[in-house]
Amino acid sequence: MICQTIRKGSECALMTTTGCSYKGGLCHEIIESCQGCNRAAQIESGWYCSACPEPSIKWKNGNCNLATHVVSQTAASKAKINPLKASKRGNR
């Protein structure tokens, strides 16, 4: 449905016929960690996340899983190679 509270005119999954179904009935502004994200949208009353009504909860336990500006790095661990097998592969 179309939001009638803060993000007027934009599509909102939490909007019902009786109003906003999110706790308190309002979305919360983005936090400092959200700066630079493509999902942050400026509305006349401030900056809000287009994917999450309360961004501070997403950043509570580390990085937000919806953040487009954060790149997660995976630890590339080198597996131990058996030298005997490696020498046999080299002889092929």
Task: Give a verbal description of the structure.
The chain is of the alpha+beta class and 92 residues long. The protein contains two helices and four strands. It has helices at 55-58, 83-90, and strands at 15-16, 19-20, 40-43, 46-49. The strands form two sheets. The chain has a two-stranded antiparallel ribbon. A two-stranded antiparallel sheet has the order 3-4. A hairpin with a 2-residue loop joins β1 and β2.
Helix/sheet category: alpha+beta
CA distance, first residue to last residue: 64 Å
Question: What is the strand tally?
Answer: 4
The residue-averaged pLDDT reads 81
Quaternary organisation: single chain
Can you write the helix and strand succession as a string?
Answer: EEEEHH
Strand order of the largest sheet: 1-2
Anisotropy-based shape: rod-shaped
Percent of residues in helices = 10-25%
User: How would a textbook summarize the main sheet?
Assistant: 2 strands, antiparallel
